[in-house]
Amino acid sequence: MTVSPLAWGVTIVVILALLAFDYFFHIRKAHIPTLKEAAIWSSIYVGLALVFGGVVWVLGGAQMGTEYFAGYITEKALSVDNLFVFLIIMASFRVPREDQQKVLLFGIVFSLIARTAFILLGAALINSFSWVFYIFGLILLITAGNLLKPESTEGDDEANNFIIRLARKIFHTSENYDGDKLFTMENGKRVLTPMLLVMVAIGGTDILFALDSIPAIFGLTQNVFIVFTATAFSLMGLRQLYFLIDGLLDRLIYLSYGLATILAFIGVKLVLHALHENTLPFINGGEHVPVIEITTGLSLSVIVGVLVVTVIASLVSPAGKAMTAVNNARRHADAYLDLTYTADPAERERVYKALCDEEQDILKMDLKYRDKVKDIEEIRETVARAHSEHERYLSR
């Protein structure tokens, strides 16, 4: 179905209006979103995405609607996985809790711009060269394989990349934040703040994410309007989702396996489609290869099914519960000990209470699960230091 320029214009205006609303009514004044606020706005953005999908289904037909929902769910799942990296980056730069919203909104806007550019490039390549489906499929299969590799934490610093090191050498940079300002005055000189550097790091990772996500959604639909809107709506509300599931991300211990399965499935779908449309002379003499093509309906069923199984398996797994509780205890202990984490006493009290609650949950768990968590002794020492610091705070 051909989408009219009017529909394109209205859609883009709506997306820009949502971003502007997010900034002027939520981000402009730095604050820490409550769980209730994050839950309400996450629900609103998901609701808007579903309503838009319903409109597409009614006006564009069942095929177009199915493609939108398959693309939206896939991109949303990949976006949730991206939150892990955002969390690591902001922890590496020690971004104050109340200023993290601004960083996340920048990441969403930059990601939307980067992915739009990749969408236009991908559409142009597909229209000109059908063999590009082979490349897209190979990218997804390699990405799926990388997701199955054990993660290495030694020397892993997502924020310490080449661009950041170069920026620190060339420009004057401050070691301390000045609210959410990008520049500040230090010793009479105008210098960059870590806020600008963390935005550069987020932007750099967004480009890498686009390399995975755009081939994935092109594997489900080649309708540029659907690709763009499914991607855009999957990014809307990502900021609120971050604060809603922050602390629960570690609980999804099998998410990488689920995403690997989905990306591998779409990768195979792309290769089959490439064979069906084949024009390469060294494959079947340049003729189309008669292969089974996977329907969009089947794709949507597989994607939803894999995500449901992944989430349920992660939530009910005793090992997952232990890993989540222990890692959250470490994270909250580190946050409490880090005096630059936030200037809000109420937030520090919330962090300490969360730490105590998690310790109680850990004590109820089977030793064989909690003692297998990596760096468990180091975590215990960090938690003990947090308790000592709290006792000193109370004795003042």
UniProtKB/TrEMBL annotation:
Membrane-related topology note: Multi-pass membrane protein
Main location as per UniProt: membrane
Compartments reported by the entry: Membrane
InterPro entries associated with the record: Integral_membrane_TerC, Integral_membrane_TerC_rswitch
Domain of life: Bacteria
Membrane-spanning intervals of the chain: 6-26, 38-59, 79-96, 103-125, 131-148, 191-211, 223-245, 252-274, 294-316
Record-linked Pfam families: TerC
UniProt keyword terms in alphabetical order: Membrane, Transmembrane, Transmembrane helix
Record family assignment: Belongs to the TerC family.
Name of the protein this chain belongs to: TerC family protein
Organism: Arthrobacter zhaoxinii
